[in-house]
Amino acid sequence: MVDPLPVHVNREELHDIAVPTSFETTGTFDVRLVNHGQPLHVHLHLDDDLSTVASLEATNHYVDGESERRVTVSVRDGATIRGKLKVVSGYGAQTRYVDVIVTEPDEEEDSVRVDESLAEPQPVAADQTEGLVADGPAVPVAALAIGALVVTAGIAFALQAFVVGLGALVVLAGVIVALYVLFVE
């Protein structure tokens, strides 16, 4: 986040304004209105150049005595321009200008550097392939199929239902086809 643009009012005398001569930003920023005295209104205005890429929600701002208020200046992303922000207090009693320079943000280093050695496939270590599915998925599929058949046969026997038994035969046929495909290829 960009540091806010400080605007000090009522520091030396009533309606006095103190601003920096210039302010550089890479995007949306806040104007920090700091009142050192009596309550007053501060008017902010963007010149024609600056208003092509930036905007204020409101231009007239009431600032209580001995308090601070922030006003957001929204800047369109990717915009670069130079313009002026006009700061007025006391309904025109005091006026100051700030040169506002909107620049592109610096490129952030979010990328990953890849060298030529990563362009080729890396050999797989032998210990990475060990395990239950090292020789293919045939063993887990066969174990799952046998478990499903045992459960189905148990349900068919317990319920003495012909339809469940027929379903078990369909499952058995599917398992035989799956095992054939796994072992042939």
What does this structure look like?
It holds the Pfam family DUF7524. The chain crosses the membrane at residues 138-157, 163-183. Keywords: Membrane, Transmembrane, Transmembrane helix. The protein has three helices and ten strands, in the order βββββαβββββαα. The protein is elongated, with a radius of gyration of 37 Å. The chain has two domains: 5-102, Immunoglobulin-like, CATH 2.60.40; 134-184. 13% of the residues are buried. The model has no long low-confidence stretch (mean pLDDT 84). A hairpin with a 4-residue loop joins strand 9 and strand 10. A five-stranded mixed beta sheet has the order 2-1-4-8-6, with no helix packed on it. A five-stranded mixed beta sheet has the order 3-10-9-5-7. With 185 residues, it is an alpha+beta fold. Helix 2 packs antiparallel against helix 3 (162-184). It has helices at residues 48-51, 138-159, 162-184; strands at 5-9, 17-18, 22-25, 29-35, 40-46, 54-56, 60-63, 68-75, 81-89, 94-102. Helices cover 26% and strands 31% of the residues.
